[in-house]
Amino acid sequence: MTTPDDDRFSPNAATRAKAALKRDPWDLPDVSGLVVGVLGGTGDQGRGLAYRLGRAGQKVIIGSRAAERAQTAAGELGLGIEGEENAVCARRSDVVIVAVPWEGHAKTLQALREELAGKLVIDCVNPLGFDKKGAYALKPEEGSAAEQAAALLPGSRVTAAFHHLSAVLLQDPDTEQIDTDVMVLGESRADTDLVQALAARIPGMRGVFAGRLRNAHQVESLVANLISVNRRYKAHAGLRVTDV
């Protein structure tokens, strides 16, 4: 039930809504002081994201089921990156990237529900299967990996991003910049702006808002197509959005 004093119907709320629509979409917040945790940071994708963000000057903590494994990976990367057990990584971080294998996605998040409460969570997991014909998309019961994360983490602010990045390029120290766009999805503009700003910390990269979490499935699925492109052309393909 609403009342005439309900904030959604107040003049101030209407003014804020109009201002948000008029705001420059590239006017993004400063995220340089945020601590970024990477769950699955010892795998190729997580390790690559940790390296790129650390190289850009971001404070990064790698998470793993075993603290020793995370610490070893962090030591190899350098750049002030730290390694911790998953729960400690989640507690110490302002923003947490989920880069675990799809097979362990639900179990990992269920175990960290308390530690991830109140955090901005960026899910970059791609539910894929593989057979003789190559990679193909899987569709989780919730609709996508990101929507599964949102269902398992009701106290977190879940977004989706960083799906289409080559782990090879991310980890290559001789690659100075990665020329690609990052599709960013989420329910709150404040949260997607933060993720876009984080992507923009990596030279050559740009975060582009791509809709609500209900649109995450097709973004996650597109990775199967990129794998086919890369195999045929021996490339490390990414995406660019034109006219934006």
Description:
The protein is of the alpha/beta class. Helix content is 39%, strand content 19%. The chain has helices at residues 11-22, 44-55, 67-77, 86-92, 105-111, 113-116, 145-152, 167-171, 189-200, 216-233; strands at 35-39, 59-64, 82-85, 95-98, 120-123, 128-131, 134-137, 157-160, 180-186, 205-209. The strands form 2 sheets. It has an 8-stranded mixed β-sheet. A two-stranded antiparallel ribbon has the order 6-7. The N and C termini lie far apart (41 Å).
Which percent range fits the helix content? 25-40%
Largest sheet: 8 strands, mixed
Record field, number of beta strands: 10
How many DSSP helices? 10
Keywords summarizing the entry:
alpha/beta; 244 residues; 8-stranded mixed β-sheet
